[in-house]
Structure prediction request, 108 residues.
Amino acid sequence: MERVYNKLVRDNIPNIIKAKGEEPITKVLDDEIYKKELEKKLYEEYEEVLEASGEERVEELADMLEIIRSLAKLENKTLDDVIECANIKAEKRGAFEKKIFLEKVIEK
Prediction:
């Protein structure tokens, strides 16, 4: 039996598959395709975050964080760089803690 996935997976997944007595067929992507696959994976995880709750949601958020870390690395940045950027933006523009929903703006 054959199961087709055609998606980016975490580094240890092929070894986990082998440990189950199955044979993974893999390839290593070039940077351009890798970036596109990371972006697709980010969207996939985003959908999973929306469907999850509780501890499962935390797991899905952790998956998103790992993808963000990998995307940052492609830009020669670290997760700490991304967090620093987020902190600077939060300082300048605020975060989302006050739950403010902007309905409209009236020009004067």
Remarks:
- The longest helix spans residues 31-51.
- The radius of gyration is 19 Å.
- The mean pLDDT is 97.
